[in-house]
Amino acid sequence: MKNMGSCLCKKITFEVFKFQGPIGHCHCKMCQKFHGAAFSTFAETKVSDLHWLSGQVFLKSYRAENETVRAFCACCGSSLLFESKHNRVEGTIEIALAAFDSIEPVHADAHIYTESKADWYKISDTLTQFGQYRR
Ligand SMILES: [Zn+2]
Ligand SMILES: [Zn+2]
Predict the structure, then answer these.
(1) Of all helices (H) and strands (E), which one includes residue 85?
(2) How far is the CA of 130 from the centre of ligand 1 (A)?
(3) Cα 72 from Cα 34, distance rounded (Å)
């Protein structure tokens, strides 16, 4: 199964050769705002394992005060990428799993930043919960 993703308007398309590291549902306020949703789910990949197939010119990024960078499609607004200082040191990047049209079997194993979870969302699964970043 190839990991192929795209934004809502399909101008941006990409392929990821390999994911790495654990996957968490992030309930931080910035992810909530960025996704327009209760939480985000990003998977990490090496930058060299992310291959742009089309539309890279439409990628627009927002750098927050805490030095995190989030990228989205300038045409349709789809949330696509997350990058922290840690990612830049490691040569990795995080990609929104919701943007994938086909994907190998991957599973989130935890909820992170649950201290800022939206009041209107109830976590009803048994995954591990971390108040802030996973330890
Ligand atoms: Zn788009
Ligand atoms: Zn977050």
Answers:
(1) helix 85-90
(2) 32
(3) 9
CA of 71 relative to ligand 1 center, distance in Å: 11
How far does the centroid of ligand 1 lie from the alpha carbon of residue 81, in Å?
Answer: 13
For the entire predicted model, the pTM comes to 0.94
CB 57, CB 7: distance < 8 Å: no
The pLDDT of residue 135 is above 90 = no
Instruction: Show the tokens assigned to 107.
Output: 């599973």
Give the number of the ligand closest to the Cα of residue 11. 1
Distance CA 134, CA 9 (A): 33
* Structural domains in the chain, sorted by start: 3-129 (2.170.150.70)
